[in-house]
Design goal:
8 strands; Alpha-Beta Plaits; 303 residues; alpha+beta; two-stranded antiparallel ribbon; 3-methyladenine DNA Glycosylase II, Chain A, domain 3; two-stranded antiparallel sheet
């Protein structure tokens, strides 16, 4: 009797295995989605950072978009020119000249440069502080609580003396800092050289109003725009036209920089050997670490 039971059980298991194998084989053929081999080739050529700097969730999604013709091959800021060339080779196309994209903080005011600052006892985050109207006189400037610093996975931006400062040696241009800035003063622009010019201000108010809240803000004098077409006025604020940015700075451009009465047009980017030698003996300021807590954390409860 036991042998019969065992035989029936074994036969049942074999039968079920055969049926399931057939069903799985049928499902594999029926629901199979053909994947373009170029997607895998592009995915292998990408650095795999999954930083989102290209505007897609990760490298795989970007690879699919490239193959589908929905994205250009030069959007990977981490991979740079070599990566763009590799992707173009897979797609069988010619890649246009591409440049690495990096962030620029459009504020140059440290603590001593800001007028009308008030004590802030709320949550030490830029997102929360931005909701307070009188935290500092300038409603456009860096709040300095380090939301961008926390968002960066590459330790490439720090708050120094109240101002977000990019470490271009570490930065890969993922754009995480720009996404979390509640005042949108961090922009991601193409760097056509190791160091490029930037207007370190975002205040569009009239000059007299800017002077009442900041020692270094742009006063809209238009001196730079009158000398060089690279500078465009947006209301009362000077801005650099990065699409027209030259590969080399001209005498005209440097004259425009020197004419700025607030010294608000500066070079940003990787320091040269000459720059490093000039500050070799200087003591660097301490990095200000953001203190993420609310006023409730400091409350003394009585009962």
């Amino acid at each position: 009797m036991s042998w019969v039971t065992i035989s029936l059980s074994a036969g049942t298991m074999v039968g079920m295995a055969v049926i399931l194998s057939y069903v799985l084989g049928w499902a594999n053929k029926t629901f199979h989605v053909e994947v373009d081999p170029r997607v895998e080739a592009i995915n292998n050529a990408l650095p795999g950072a999954n930083c989102g700097g290209c505007g897609y969730v990760g490298c795989s999604e970007y690879a699919e978009a490239v193959v589908a013709g929905e994205a250009p091959v030069n959007k990977c800021s981490v991979g740079g020119k070599s990566c763009a060339a590799a992707l173009a080779d897979v797609m069988g196309i010619e890649v246009k000249e591409s440049y690495p994209y990096r962030p620029i903080v459009h504020c140059g005011a440290h603590y001593d440069d800001r007028l009308g600052r008030n004590e802030y006892y709320g949550e030490k985050r830029c997102l929360a502080a931005n909701l307070v109207t009188d935290i500092q006189g300038c409603a456009y400037g860096c709040l300095g609580f380090g939301d961008c610093q926390v968002a960066c996975n590459y330790d490439a931006i720090h708050v120094i003396d109240g101002l977000a400062t990019v470490d271009y040696e570490k930065c890969i241009g993922c754009g995480a800092c720009a996404k979390v800035c509640p005042r949108n003063i961090i922009t991601i622009v193409p760097f056509k050289a190791e160091k490029i010019l930037a207007v370190t201000c975002s205040n569009q108010d009239a000059g007299k109003d800017v002077m009442s809240v900041c020692k270094v803000g742009c006063i809209g004098c238009k001196a730079c725009a009158r000398i060089s077409d690279l500078f465009k006025m947006d209301e009362n604020l000077s801005k650099v036209d990065y699409d027209a940015y030259p590969l080399e700075c001209s005498v005209e451009l440097m004259n425009a920089v020197e004419k700025c009465p607030r010294n608000g047009i500066v070079f940003v980017g990787k320091p040269s050997a000459k720059d490093l030698a000039a500050v070799a003996d200087e003591e660097l300021p301490e990095v200000v670490e953001p203190d993420f807590k609310t006023t409730v954390d400091d409350t003394k409860w009585r009962g």
